[in-house]
Amino acid sequence: MRVWVDFTNTAHVIVLRPLVERLEAAGHDVALTARPLSHTLDLLDDWGRSYTVLGRHGGVGRTAKARAAAERVRAMIGFGRGKGFAAALAHGSTELPVACRVLGVPNATMFDYEWAVAQHHANCRTADRVLVPDAIPADRLRRYGAGPGKLVRYPGLKEDYHLDAFTPDLELLDRLGIDRARSRVLCVVRTAPAYALYLGGSENAALPELLQRLQTAADAVDTVVLTRTPQQIADITAMGLDRLRVPPRAVDGLSLVALADVLVSAGGTMNREAAVLGTPVWSMFEGRPGAVDDALKAQGKLRQFEAPQDVVLERKAARDPWPFRGRDPATLLELALGDWLG
């Protein structure tokens, strides 16, 4: 059968990749579409799958976002018409559920942060199925139209599924110029998704102070800063922090988080990947806390960043041998699409 999968942000490639690969292994014909944002296309290129670019990101403003979303919906309806799709899947795509509703294609949407209000009013009402972690209370989602008839709450975190059987690429450190037999601490910093509507263009005000601290500690700390936009690269470069590594394009973030001793991040998925893999993580996320992060904080697996001096720069304890054992992605795929694929 033909299945349509849409990617609208960098993390979605990581999250949906094992589901796509299982669909392909089962003999399904999978068509991929993508919106160019951050490193989404870089990761799709690295994966080696063909895809069709549709639409653009509308920026921070609500009106511009709505205009870009409407343009993308029209493009997606044109793409999907006559293709004979049996089902469609996305994580956080606002446009795929709307296009599929027009085209009559059964579709499932996934997300794990419940306070992206405008997005969820659109995708929950138009999707046929809504998958979220069971940490999110069902009553928080009813106002979006995700009632008992379409809401599916799965056990654990999405990271438990896409990290299953994961083994980090040890050679990544060599490519970044970091000694694998190092005695220094490896700190990874992830900048904010300032383009997200729920952050309104916010960049964490404490980030420059944190980077200055890491520059000063460079004799004892190797720092890699993972940015999201060219402007963030330019802003950090302008600070003259020559002892920090700022890759110009996407790198293997999963491996970097797994090998790091500490992560300081304004990202959601990367924070939770660190928590699942046992890497100490401080969250710089400035939006309203979601239920998943609240649960991780209660378990001591995620700490809230308050000031640069709070971050403990020390080597983490050795972990059990790889690969990581999580949850079977086939379970998640079955919950999302199973009955539509026969």
Question: What would you say about this model in short?
Answer:
This protein has 13 helices and twelve strands. The chain is globular, with a radius of gyration of 20 Å.
What does this structure look like?
The structure is a single chain. This protein is α/β, with parallel strands linked by helices and 342 residues long. It is built from 13 helices and twelve strands. Strands 3-2-1-4-5-6-7 form a seven-stranded parallel sheet, with helices on both faces. β10, α11 (268-277) and β11 (281-283) form a beta-alpha-beta unit. α1 packs parallel to α2.
Which short descriptors sum up this protein?
single chain, 342 residues, alpha/beta, Rossmann fold, five-stranded parallel β-sheet, 13 helices, globular
Q: SSE layout and pairings?
A:
Elements lengths: L1 E6 L2 H16 L3 E6 L5 H8 L4 E2 L8 H19 L4 E7 L3 H9 L3 E4 L6 H10 L2 E5 L17 E4 L3 H5 L8 H5 L9 E6 L16 H10 L4 E6 L3 H9 L14 H7 L2 E4 L2 H10 L3 E3 L7 H8 L4 E2 L24 H9 L5
Parallel strand pairs: 1-2, 1-4, 2-3, 4-5, 5-6, 6-7, 8-9, 8-10, 10-11, 11-12
Helix pairs in contact: 1-2, 1-13, 3-4, 4-5, 10-11
